[in-house]
Every structure is written in structure tokens, then in C-alpha cells.
User: Which sequence fits this backbone?
């Protein structure tokens, strides 16, 4: 790295983001150095089309080193006549999907990538068509044929498992329950899952491209609708990125309201998720109880903000409503919720049929989780001490005392218990927030977006960390909005967790991860 | 567990449209009773719904799931969500219909036995909503399959969905 650092082209710092430009041939070395020696985590990797600025495509890889509130963003420029870059997947497996995505969206080739099948687009999307390039255009007939899905333009081959007694079970995209669409192909030996290949991106809505047409301020509405149950955290991270870029500093009041609502969102999600795990184990009483507590919290959300999913509160520069005025009501509801949640957990932990199903099911080892860059509850349940609220304190999290809850078991039980502990932690965090008063206006003064600037926004959603990276063009308009949902990191880990389990346990494993398809599919 | 069952057996049962302690007004609750009468008349006391996610953000799905929780408990009106379109009277479609889900939605529609109803649920299922104009969506369910009823809201609350179903059934009986 020292050698690489000597050869770096450009280094600049913007708050806690350190941008390091390296030469194309040094890219791999620099990333591997950070990953192996610094134990850095690859947070997000993406490309941009900056041909209108300096006639290059750029590849960015964002790393963060544990224990330091700093992001190392290593980037390279690719000239228009040389559209390939060195793949880092063989050394950093977490880059696997990012590089396939860049290949699909920009047509840039990661050289040396072990598996360059299409990730996002299905068979009937026209080949050599790259939506995130600025000069991309597509024929109406091509779009129609894509929707009809009858003409195979670039076939996708599933990985095949050969051997005696192997059975293939295709499931989806339309599932039996009220859930999102995705295709799963199980290769089983008897009842045991030997291999699972998920084919996702059925709900791909072209969100990143759509952000570019909306503009920064309108984008908040779209950010709220990327993943329904994490509406508030997604829009909070998006606003944070744009605010950092424009140099807007939030008032104490706005920070406090955002922190409070982030925790309220975590509460209803975690309790609902534990209830859903009961649906996976067939414990109807537990499912119903979880659903009732969740409903109480959703109705609290509605009284506070007018939306059961906390939508319409975040705006660039602050929030639209002062939640602290309804302190008494919130604390009353939380009191009942705390009591009911305790008896709920007592019921679950005391039910043998439930415990037998969750213990030792869907085990995800720390090693695999670390390599795949797993985030959130799934990571902490596998013993990775990673929580964005702690690692990169934002809003009021630096003033709240808490420790990330980790356990090394890595099974469904661990993921359930991490959620239960975080629920209690969130309740006490909300109570602590109410002990102080916060001054300032709800919305800070508006500022124009400076041209050619970029910033990173992030927060911890109930599922894990979400990242936004935004960049403005020469007129201060949107050049690129990249977001990385926690589900995007965690999906590749699900096949490893279900390996060796029986097929009927798959829904249970899946529910314990509770991943969003819409957030992942972009 | 046993305690819970005993509590259910010995506890005083009351038939009320919604449990107490939740902020739903009596008028809203009373509306639901007409739903039960209509379902009895039109569908022989049972309306089976197949929910299809055609690219929604998952909020609409959670509201549909909430319909089956003990608070709204839609099953007591004879309405239930079923696992296969072959068992369904009604398709409840959410989302702007992403291009990659178009074919699956059409196939689900064809698999539903006639007479069938289609309800588009949520703002983006009407005209694409916030996703309107994106290259990867078909801007609404009606562009892919015929729709009988729209339920607006982003997402529509469980009560709005029940109201929408009432309106549809009224249209059918009148």
C-alpha cells in the first residue's frame, strides 16, 4: 500500500470521506491492501458515467475500517476506448454482485471475474444495452418484448448439480404467501437442500436511473418508496447524502426527530419480524401476538406522522413535523408495548415446539458472513460487531450509549434474539431521547447544490446498513444516485445458510433474514 | 402456551368489529358489516383473494398481511388469502408492474378461473405512481391485465383496502 500510496494520483478529503484516485493497475492492490491488512469492510462499489465532465467512466469502491469514523473511497478512471477494469472478486468475494451489476448497467467488464452471467436483467432484455450510460436509448419495441418475456435474447443458465438422487425444485416468482416475487431453484438430496440458487430482480424498477430524472429534492419521495418497511431510514440516508453535499447542517431538533423515528421504525420491524419467525415455525399464537404489538406501533406511527410507514416526514434540510410535542402519548404506548413484548418473548422461549425449530437451523458462519460482506442483524447474529450507528455515528447516536448486540451462534435463534435485544435497546434509547430538550427550527436554511460535488449518506435500517452516494453535474443537477440496500449484501448469504437444512425449513430461514426484494432489485 | 389457551377458553368473548384500544371509529367499524352481507350474497359467503406483487415496494404487502392479523381479522367475513390463483375469485395486484414481472402476472391471471375480479391496490398500481416513466415499469396494472377496481393510497391502510372491497361488491350487486 505504501508503494501504491506513493503512486496515487489524487487525494482529497470531504468530512469523513477520503477519496483516493489510483491508476488502473494499482486498483486491485490498493483494495486488497485495505481489505487484508486493515480488515476493512467493502461497503459499496459502483460505477459512474462522467463522460460529460472528463470523458471517463469511473469505478468507486468504498471501504470503512473498524474503529475509525472514516470512509476510504478508492476510485479509478476508465477512458472511453478501454472499458475494462481489474476484478477484485477473487480476493474480496463481497464485490461479486457489485461487479456483475456494473457489467449489466454500464457495460464495463470486470476482468477476471469468475461468473459474469447477467445479474439484474432477465433473458429478454436486449443485449449490449446499458441503462445507466448517459447516452442510452432503447426502442419502444425492445421494452415491449422485454415485458412480454417470450423472446430469449440472452439466455441465463442456472448452475446445475449433478449426481445420484439429486432433484431440482423450482419455486416462484409468484409465491404462496403474501410476499414479494423471486425465483428459487433448490437442488435437493431427499429432503435436504444441497444447493440453492436464487434468481431475483423481478421487481427491478430502474430506480437509480429514475433518480436522475427526478432531481435531488423530488428524490426524497422516491427514496421513501424503495423498500416499504424501511421508508424512513432510506429517506433519512438519502437526505443525509444530499445535505452533506450541499453543506446543510441540521438543527438539534431535526436530528432528534430523525433519531427518534429511526428507532421507532426499528421497533415495529423487529417485533413484526419475530412474529413472522413464529409463522415459520407454525406457532400461530406467537404470530398473532407479534402482529398485534406491531399493529399498535403502526397506529402510533399514524398518529405521529399521518403515515403508518413514517412517510412524508423527511425533507432535504430537516423534518416536516415536531414529534416531541406528543411525548406523553409515545411513552404511554411504549409502556404497553414493553409489557406485552416481555410476555411475548416469555411465550416464545417457553414453547418447546418453537425453540426446537429455531435452534441450529439456518446456520451462517462468521467466516462466510465476513467474506460476503453481510450486514445488519444477520451479521451481528454471526458474531460480526458491525453497526453503522456505532461505527460511523451520525444524527444523535454519538450521544446515546449503546453497544451492538452480537452472538456467535449464527442460527435462526440468534437472529431472533439479536432482534429481541435490539428492541429493548431501542425502547430505552427513545426514553433517553425524551430526557433532554432540543432547540432549533425544523428545517435548516436551503442551500443550492454545488456543481461537481459528491457525498455519502448512510444509516442503519432494521435490516442492516443502507448507503447512498450522490454526485451533482456541472449545473448542480443529479449526475448519479447510487444506493445499496442491506438486502443486496445479505441475499448471497442465504444459500450458504440454508445448505444442509431441509426444504420445509427454508421459509423459516428466509423469514429470519427477512430480506427485501424491492430494495435489492433496485 | 397452555396459559394462553386457557385464557382464550375462559375469557369473556365479545363480538365487536374491532378490538378496543385501537383508534378506529365506530362508524368505520359499522361499514364493515355491510361487507359481510355482500359477500354472503355475491360469493356464497366466501371470497378468496390471491395477492400478486408486481413490483411494489412491499408496503402494500404488509398492509395485506395486516388484514389477517387479530385486529382486522378479515377471515371472519369469509374473505381469505389463498396460496394459488387456481383457488382464487379475486386477484389483488400491487406495484407499478415491473417489466420483469409482466409475464408472471399475465400467467397468474390466466391461471385464475373465471369469473374473476382484478383489484389494483396502491397508488403505483394505478398509473405507476412515483415510478411513472421509468424504463423498467409498465405504468400500472391496467396496461397489462383488465382491472375492475382501484384502491388508492401509498400504501392504502388495511381499512382502505376493506373499503375498496366493499365498493367493488356494491358495484357488483347493484
Assistant:
Amino acid at each position: 500500500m505504501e508503494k501504491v500510496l506513493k503512486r496515487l494520483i489524487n487525494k482529497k478529503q470531504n468530512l469523513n470521506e477520503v477519496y483516493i484516485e489510483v491508476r488502473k493497475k494499482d486498483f486491485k492492490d490498493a483494495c486488497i491492501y485495505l481489505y487484508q491488512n486493515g480488515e476493512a469492510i467493502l461497503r459499496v462499489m459502483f460505477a459512474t458515467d462522467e463522460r460529460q465532465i472528463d470523458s471517463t467512466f469511473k469505478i468507486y469502491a468504498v471501504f470503512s475500517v473498524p474503529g475509525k469514523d472514516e470512509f476510504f473511497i478508492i476510485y479509478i478512471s476508465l477512458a472511453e476506448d478501454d472499458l475494462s477494469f481489474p476484478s477484485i472478486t477473487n480476493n474480496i468475494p463481497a464485490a461479486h454482485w457489485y461487479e456483475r451489476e456494473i457489467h449489466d448497467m454500464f457495460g464495463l467488464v470486470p476482468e477476471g471475474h469468475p461468473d459474469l452471467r447477467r445479474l439484474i436483467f432477465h433473458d429478454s432484455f436486449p443485449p449490449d444495452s446499458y441503462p445507466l450510460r448517459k447516452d442510452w436509448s432503447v426502442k419502444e419495441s425492445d421494452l415491449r418484448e422485454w415485458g412480454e418475456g417470450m423472446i430469449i435474447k440472452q439466455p441465463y443458465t442456472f448452475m446445475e448439480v449433478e449426481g445420484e438422487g439429486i432433484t431440482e425444485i423450482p419455486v416462484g416468482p409468484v409465491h404462496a404467501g403474501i410476499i414479494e416475487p423471486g425465483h428459487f431453484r433448490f437442488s435437493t438430496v431427499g429432503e435436504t437442500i444441497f444447493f440453492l440458487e436464487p434468481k431475483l430482480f423481478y421487481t427491478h424498477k430502474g430506480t437509480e436511473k429514475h433518480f436522475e430524472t427526478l432531481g435531488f429534492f423530488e428524490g426524497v419521495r422516491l427514496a421513501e418508496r424503495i423498500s416499504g418497511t424501511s421508508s424512513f431510514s432510506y429517506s433519512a440516508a438519502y437526505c443525509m447524502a444530499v445535505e452533506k453535499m450541499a453543506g446543510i447542517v441540521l438543527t438539534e431538533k431535526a436530528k432528534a426527530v430523525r433519531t427518534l423515528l429511526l428507532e421507532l421504525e426499528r421497533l415495529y420491524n423487529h417485533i413484526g419480524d419475530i412474529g413472522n419467525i413464529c409463522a415459520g415455525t407454525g406457532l400461530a399464537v406467537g404470530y398473532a401476538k407479534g402482529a398485534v404489538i406491531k399493529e399498535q406501533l403502526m397506529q402510533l406511527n399514524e398518529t405521529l406522522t399521518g403515515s403508518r410507514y413514517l412517510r412524508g416526514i423527511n425533507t432535504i434540510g430537516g423534518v416536516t413535523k415536531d414529534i416531541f410535542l406528543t411525548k406523553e402519548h409515545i411513552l404511554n404506548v411504549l409502556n404497553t408495548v414493553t409489557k406485552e413484548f416481555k410476555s411475548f418473548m416469555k411465550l416464545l422461549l417457553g414453547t418447546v415446539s418453537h425453540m426446537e425449530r429455531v435452534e441450529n437451523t439456518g446456520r451462517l458462519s462468521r467466516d462466510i458472513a465476513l467474506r460476503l460482506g453481510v450486514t445488519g442483524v444477520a451479521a451481528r447474529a454471526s458474531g460480526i460487531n458491525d453497526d453503522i450507528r456505532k461505527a460511523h455515528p451520525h444524527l444523535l447516536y454519538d450521544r446515546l450509549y449503546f453497544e451492538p448486540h452480537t452472538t456467535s451462534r449464527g442460527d435462526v435463534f440468534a437472529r431472533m434474539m439479536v432482534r429481541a435485544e435490539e428492541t429493548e435497546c431501542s425502547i430505552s434509547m427513545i426514553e433517553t431521547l425524551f430526557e433532554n430538550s432540543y432547540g432549533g427550527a425544523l428545517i435548516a436554511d436551503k442551500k443550492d447544490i454545488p456543481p461537481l460535488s459528491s457525498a455519502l449518506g448512510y444509516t442503519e435500517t432494521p435490516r442492516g446498513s443502507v448507503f447512498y452516494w450522490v454526485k451533482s453535474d456541472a449545473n448542480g443537477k443529479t449526475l448519479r444516485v447510487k444506493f445499496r440496500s442491506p438486502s443486496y449484501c445479505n441475499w448471497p448469504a442465504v444459500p450458504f445458510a440454508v445448505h444442509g437444512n431441509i426444504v420445509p425449513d427454508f421459509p423459516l430461514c428466509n423469514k429470519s433474514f427477512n430480506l427485501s426484494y424491492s430494495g435489492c432489485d433496485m | 402456551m397452555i396459559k394462553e389457551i386457557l385464557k382464550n377458553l375462559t375469557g369473556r368473548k365479545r363480538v365487536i368489529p374491532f378490538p378496543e384500544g385501537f383508534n378506529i371509529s365506530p362508524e368505520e367499524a359499522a361499514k364493515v358489516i355491510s361487507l359481510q352481507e355482500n359477500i354472503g350474497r355475491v360469493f356464497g359467503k366466501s371470497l378468496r383473494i390471491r395477492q400478486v406483487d408486481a413490483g411494489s415496494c412491499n408496503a402494500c404487502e404488509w398492509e395485506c398481511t395486516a388484514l389477517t392479523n387479530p385486529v382486522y381479522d378479515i377471515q371472519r367475513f369469509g374473505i381469505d388469502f389463498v396460496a394459488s390463483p387456481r383457488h382464487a375469485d379475486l386477484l389483488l395486484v400491487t406495484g407499478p408492474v415491473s417489466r420483469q414481472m409482466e409475464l408472471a402476472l399475465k400467467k397468474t391471471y390466466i391461471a385464475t378461473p373465471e369469473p374473476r375480479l382484478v383489484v389494483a391496490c396502491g397508488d403505483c398500481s394505478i398509473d405507476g405512481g412515483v415510478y411513472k416513466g421509468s424504463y423498467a415499469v409498465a405504468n400500472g396494472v391496467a396496461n397489462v391485465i383488465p382491472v375492475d377496481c382501484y384502491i388508492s393510497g401509498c400504501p392504502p391502510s388495511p381499512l382502505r383496502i376493506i373499503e375498496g372491497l366493499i365498493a367493488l361488491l356494491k358495484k357488483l350487486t347493484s
Chain B touches chain A through 52 residues (CB under 8 Å). The mean pLDDT of chain B is 82.
